[in-house]
């Protein structure tokens, strides 16, 4: 870390080293401990967050940033290791900011993710409800089917780094020859692309940096956002779902767990006895088409016209005739539906920022029987949960899925019902 010109030196000097006992993990994947202020015998009140330190460990850490009520520090040395500490598979772990948990046994990753969801549920939503054990990924490495490495503007005399952000940095890139959580097909294509980019950089082809795209679909790697790709999702012994979409479009990036994930959403949506399903934020149709056999009619709604076109193509390609898709204006998502809310389940999978107020108002006016809320950010999901409770909905099940092994990220599915 480079020292900022306006470094706040309260309560610790820049690069001051401290010993601290780590007691928990934050939902950002940071080890958290408390250190005393005002002498060794003072009560340890000040929060210190240390990347790559694990609960139960005693570590030496070097402060690089002070905030109003906590400090951030780099891990210098593990003085007493956790029994759950593992050997990272990637030699760049600890420098590359892509993974946070390669040093933690996978079973413990799942348990800490469950705890973090439970804490957010209680503290942000004010709900005491058991959180089911996290459903783990069948593949813990080599699972990721899309990556977006970067490179900065070339500098004379320096080899061009192509990879991901340095841990704790917003600008510096770590050179990543191979990503251990990406598929083998992506890694093969990444090696080729790195050589080509460096060759072209040496010829002066780049005046600024760029972000690359690699999307693996069945072993074929697309590198342009507008390339059409396909993913097959097995839903049962004789029930595969084949979906086509653009390489740059949003689609879940862990194919190994998609059948479990989509199957759970379908089962929760139909468990309340609703006859109809609305899939808001439907994208290219994953949840709508996976759930169609369980409902009389399914309607997918999406603000993106191109995604709606793909969803319609996917319905036809899979011979699903009871699902239709419409491009919905954000101000009128549920207008024009021919069935009542009290006989309908709604699946929502919003962006990381969660649901906006306009969408929630429309949803509560429609008054569906049940809502299955899928989220890649449990913090914003729990914030929205307060609005659901105020509107008369009660959470009945909380099921996390680990779509992102070795990282702090997860997907959480909350089922809400209206009494």
What do you see in this structure?
The chain has 419 residues and is of the alpha+beta class. Among the domains are: 17-85, OB fold (Dihydrolipoamide Acetyltransferase, E2P); 108-140 and 256-417, 3-Layer(aba) Sandwich (Rossmann fold). 22% of the residues lie in helices and 28% in strands. The chain is built from seven helices and 21 strands. The strands form six sheets. The protein has a seven-stranded mixed β-sheet, sandwiched between helices. Helix 1 packs parallel to helix 7 (378-390). The model has no long low-confidence stretch (mean pLDDT 94).
List the helices and strands and how they pair.
Layout lengths: L16 E9 L4 E7 L7 E8 L6 E9 L3 E11 L25 H20 L20 E2 L2 E2 L11 E3 L7 E3 L8 H19 L7 E2 L2 E4 L2 E3 L5 E7 L5 E7 L11 H13 L5 E5 L5 H6 L5 E6 L2 H13 L5 E5 L16 E5 L8 H10 L3 E6 L2 H13 L3 E8 L9 E7 L2
Parallel strand pairs: 3-5, 15-16, 15-18, 16-17, 18-19
Antiparallel strand pairs: 1-2, 1-4, 2-3, 4-5, 6-11, 7-10, 8-9, 11-12, 13-14, 19-21, 20-21
Gist of the model:
Helix content is 22%, strand content 28%.
What key phrases describe this protein's structure?
419 residues; alpha+beta; OB fold (Dihydrolipoamide Acetyltransferase, E2P); seven-stranded mixed sheet; five-stranded mixed barrel
Kindly provide the name of the CATH class of the domain at 108-140 and 256-417: Alpha Beta
In the sheet with the most strands, the strands line up as 17-16-15-18-19-21-20
CATH topology grouping of the domain at 108-140 and 256-417: Rossmann fold
What would you call the structural class?
alpha+beta
CATH architecture of the domain at 108-140 and 256-417: 3-Layer(aba) Sandwich
Give the uncertain stretches in residue-range form.
none
**Residue share in helix:** 10-25%
- Characterize the overall form: globular
Give the number of helices. Answer: 7
Strand content: 25-35%
**End-to-end distance, in Å?**
53 Å
Tell me, rounded to a whole number, the average pLDDT: 94
Tell me the CATH superfamily of the domain at 108-140 and 256-417. Answer: Vaccinia Virus protein VP39
Q: How many distinct beta strands? A: 21
- What Rg do the Cα atoms give? 23 Å
């Amino acid at each position: 870390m480079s020292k900022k010109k306006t470094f706040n030196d309260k309560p610790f000097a820049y690069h001051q080293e401290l010993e601290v006992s780590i007691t928990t993990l934050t939902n950002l994947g940071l080890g958290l401990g408390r250190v005393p202020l005002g002498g060794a015998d003072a009560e340890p009140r000040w929060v210190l967050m240390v990347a790559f330190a694990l609960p139960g460990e005693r570590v030496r850490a070097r402060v690089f940033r002070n905030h109003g009520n906590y400090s951030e520090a780099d891990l210098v040395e593990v003085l007493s290791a956790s029994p759950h500490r593992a050997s990272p598979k990637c030699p760049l772990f600890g420098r590359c900011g892509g993974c946070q948990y390669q040093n933690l046994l996978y079973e413990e990753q799942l348990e800490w993710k469950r705890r973090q969801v439970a804490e957010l549920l209680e503290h942000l939503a004010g709900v005491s409800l058991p959180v089911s054990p996290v459903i783990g990924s069948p593949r813990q490495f080599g699972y990721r089917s899309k990556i977006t490495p970067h490179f900065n503007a070339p500098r004379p005399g320096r080899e061009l780094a192509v990879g991901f952000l340095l841990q704790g940095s917003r600008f510096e890139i770590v050179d990543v020859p191979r990503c251990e959580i990406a598929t083998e097909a992506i890694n093969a294509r990444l090696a080729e692309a790195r050589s080509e980019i460096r060759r072209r950089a040496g010829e002066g082809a780049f005046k600024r940096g760029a972000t690359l795209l690699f999307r693996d679909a069945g072993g074929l790697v697309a590198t342009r956002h507008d390339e059409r790709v396909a993913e097959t999702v097995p839903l049962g012994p004789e029930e595969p779902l084949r979906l086509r979409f653009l390489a740059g479009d949003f689609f879940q990036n862990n194919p190994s767990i998609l059948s479990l994930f989509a199957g759970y959403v379908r089962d929760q949506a139909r468990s309340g006895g609703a006859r109809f399903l609305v899939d808001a934020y439907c994208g290219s149709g994953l949840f709508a088409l996976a759930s169609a056999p369980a409902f009389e009619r399914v309607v997918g709604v999406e603000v993106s016209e191109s995604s709606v076109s793909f969803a319609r193509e996917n319905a036809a390609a899979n011979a699903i005739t009871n699902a239709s898709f419409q491009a919905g204006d954000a101000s009128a998502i549920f207008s024009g539906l021919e069935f009542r809310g009290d006989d309908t389940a709604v699946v929502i999978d919003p962006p990381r920022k969660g649901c906006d107020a306009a969408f929630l108002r429309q949803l509560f006016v429609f008054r569906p029987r049940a809502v299955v809320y899928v989220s890649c950010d449990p913090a914003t999901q729990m914030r929205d949960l307060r609005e659901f409770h105020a509107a008369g909905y009660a959470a009945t099940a909380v099921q996390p899925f680990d779509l992102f092994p070795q990282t702090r990220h997860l997907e959480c599915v909350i089922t809400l019902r209206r009494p």
